[in-house]
Queue: 2 jobs
Job 1
Amino acid sequence: MNKNSNVFKVDRNTNRINPLKKRRFSDLGFKERDHIQEWLVHQSNALGEDLLIIQKEFDGFDDTRERLDLLALDKAGNLVIIENKLDDSGRDVVWQSLKYTAYVSRLTKAQIVDIYQQYLVTYEGGGSSTDKICEFLEVDDIDEAVLNSGNSQRIMLVAGHFRKEVTATVLWLISRGVRIQCFRITPFSLENDVLLDIDLIIPPPEATDYMIGISSKENEEATVQGVQKERHQIRFNFWSHLLTIFRNKNIELYSNVSPTKDHWINAGSGLSGCPYSLVFGKSESRVELSFSRGDTLWNKSIFDKFYEHKDEIEHAIGKKLEWKRLDDKKSSRIVLAHSFDGFDKNNWSTIVEWMAENILLFQKVLSPYLDKYGQAMKNSHSEDSLNMEEDQME
């Protein structure tokens, strides 16, 4: 949205549009720290991508009392410095953010993990920073995560208005390879409500796509080094070994799957978004049934129906399972795990036998429930309709 554009409300009754009133945050009583900062903390994808907020009001700089508003990780493991201003960017915001970027560029992986752990303890009531970072980056363990590599740091500036000296400096920095973005945030009044428009103004979206593409290439090149290169090769070799044995055993579930460097492979269960997964890690292996459609309510509803039969399912499988509803996530899953030293090739045959036995057992025991509940929910988005369908079946 450019600065001269307006936001309108459509009146269906009169077939007319009415402009919403543009407001100032200060006039509405909003503040940087109490409001804008908290909005971004609790809706971290509001700036156009998934970010993991790892600290707010970060002051861990030597010999200075300065505080950076928000520190985050992006999906490539890069540190993101987020600076928030209210109605005006001021003239020093770029210099301020560059200082913070220089400070955090020296942070090691261990320090980042510790900073996030402090954040979890202080603001989230605890939890494991290592586990959450691994889940966010979709890696098997923290040894594999690449955090704050080289000059990969990014800057996001958020303000109601950017001065020309700020935008000119930002554009110059971008031309010199600095990864910096400006987001203009504008409040509008709608009766008793306030609407918020968040608009990426620098760089324009097409330039952003180019920057992301360059970042992805750099990240891909980085992953062929060191421990990641070794782990990717180990996984590829393991899955090649497993798929060969599965073919020899006439296990058709993964017949259309190719070896991969990822720590997991999926096979269809017959129900979209609910794969049977094999997970191969350094310290454990798992078989899983995931409920991972785009509809969170759907995933939780079908998981809950399976959980109602927990005892009979575990009795049929003959083992205790991990029932991971994952209330703070979109997906849910049913898991059977076993500890193995996966990177010792001498254990691979044992691991493959364990996976073969248990994924077939999963398929045998869980498929009837998928047929029963999955088909009932195929075109449903509510638990009520699932319950209604179940009553009819019974």
Job 2
Amino acid sequence: MRVLFTVFASRSHLYNMVQLAWALRSSGHEVCVAGQPDLVDMITSTGLPAVPVGKELTPGSDGWRGKGMQNLDVLSRGLAAPHEEQRGGGWEYVLGEWTMACGVRYESLADQRMVDDLVKFARTWEPDLVVWDAMTFAGPVAAKACGAAHARMNFGRDYIYRLYQDYVALRDEQPPEQRDDPLEDWFTGRLARIGHTYDPSMAKEMLTGQWTIDPLPDWLRVPTDLPTVHASYVPYNGRITIADWVYRKPEVPRVCLSFGVSLREHVGGAIVPVEDMLGAVADLDIEVIATLDASQIDAAAVPDNVTLVGFVSLNELMPSCSVAVHQGGYGTYSNALLHGVPSLIIPHPFWDEAECGVLFEKRGAGLCLTPEEFTPEAFREKLVRLLEEPHFRSTARELQQEIHDAPKPLDVVPLLEQLTAQHRGRDSR
């Protein structure tokens, strides 16, 4: 069968899809990846065919950096809000957050030109299955246009659907004339351009796919009633060259400190002062590998037990580490879990980071230190606990085994084939 992956111009979101794309290709299926022009070089570097659609999003530019910060700030208020806070805010609050979130996701990440180009390609290439990144809503429109089955691929906790559930529950309590629906507004126009009429019964499918592909372990997922295929995380870090020191067995405990490449590219660096973190552990008998560049810290402020590296593959670094300090991003904590490394999470407020920090601490696989609680002394105290208390490491090793035992992308290909056969051609024109 033919499988079209589509994702907006984000390195981390693309990398989340690569292993499944290659699993399908290794099983004999035709695969290509569509994204904005500024993603094309990254797509082709994975060995997969690239299809440019839409206009450049330029995620590394200063313009996007400012816009991205605003967009992520909007999402953090709505999508990342605790479930109780969303419902407790009332109808106007939830409607406002849902409207802003829809505008960010649809208009900023999948503009009309991207939708039109993707539809045109899908009608020409005629894929059997469209797999779309959870923030790339051109995907389900293109699937409708060509009659393909379509699946959403999550990249973290499912806050999109959680907010939608809150929105629907409160909407249904309102008088009919007050039941505004920004989802309907967006999809009505896009579907009309391909000869389809939007029906409210389509909302759930257009938002979450005919099924969802979720890489998270059960204990990290948002409970939902959605049909879901679980394909556990397999790391992909792009084209890399590994330095000799990465595989060197450290003489003292090694600590990885990373705040994510994508956040550095889109919105800047860490949310707390890096100098304070490094200064707080300067006298500890540890080796800190910090994935920071000159934009994030002055090299003159780096203690002797810290090594700065602009980038290192976490999949290769983590096996030698005793603790990982990070922002709670999906790719970073997944690498830590995969190698049984406890986490000290200092969460950024942009998606599921804060809640993941709580869940890691509750599960015993790490500790969380919020930016509001951060002091150099508190950072040092939590890091020392993770290094010295063995139960954190043993729990992380248990969770590592759970990931190894879970289905991998290659394991779920037969199920994707079955689901595609069941859904392909429905409601197409």
